[in-house]
Amino acid sequence: MTALAPEHITLSALGRLSPHASRADQIAHIAEAARQIRLQDLKLVHYANAGHIGGDFSAIDVLATLYGAVLNIDPDNPDDPERDRFILSKGHVAGALYTTLAAFGFLPVEDLATFLKPLSKLNGHPNRNYVRGVEANTGPLGHGLPIAVGHALSAKLDVSQRRTYVLTGDGELQEGSNWEAMMAASQYELDRLTVIVDRNRLQQGATTRETNDLDPLDKKAAAFGFAVVEVNGHDHGELLDVLSAVPIRPGKPTFVIAHTHKGHPISYMSNNVAWHHKVPNEAQLGQALEELDRLQAQQKQQEVAEARTATPTSNGGQQA
What we know:
The structure is a single chain. This protein is of the alpha/beta class. It has a single domain (21-310), classed as Rossmann fold. 41% of the residues lie in helices and 10% in strands. The protein has nine helices and seven strands; from the N terminus they run ααβααβαβββααβαβα. α1 (23-48) packs across α3 (94-103).
């Protein structure tokens, strides 16, 4: 297999739209960002011959929505004390995070060619000392949510409006440290804290139900004092609306259950537990790239159809 090299880095730095852009334009921009992040992440994992592509792909739509439209952050001022904080608790999907950071200007795109190489800053778990835009070193599961609670409590003590978001895996919630942190978040009424659960129902080697069942997850989170919302974790409109609207209930932290599919939207990866830590071979890489190209064509057709539907007719009505 050819080693990861600069010629494999094809991602464009997309940046963000104006905050005054329409909801439809924001959603279209996020969708294209998510597609390009998936294209690049596939190449990173294939040519580096390592990574967690299944979990990357279940989380990318959440990451693209946060960095593309929701988080109050600026790549030109990444240490702004009033910036929103994002913690990737499921740190093993670092490839998806690095690619997202590059897409939105926090990381030089060309640095992606160093992914997982000896002495690279882009190692298998994110390190805030090396990578701009990373707020916490994560990897050992169950650490990110407690860190996020600390950030949210700090913001409250500062009487700050900054928000804290944390993305956890669902299997990760089998770690007791998360529930201790949730008790503290409820106790201190940290309503600027949002926990997002990547609810793909798969973990390394098995389903979450087979390992240690989390259901009823919504009722458990509510019992711990959270305002609970469930969304389609691959629907950019739903994600944008919910993640932009926090706090959902004043005085309560928010718990977003994002229903996702591991490996989405690649046919042979989706909902397949084998792709937790598997690397696509040359043929599988080609098939996945083709499927993402077809997805782009479908998105463009949908945009054209929606534009036609929204075009006013001469009598002020709408076209059929």
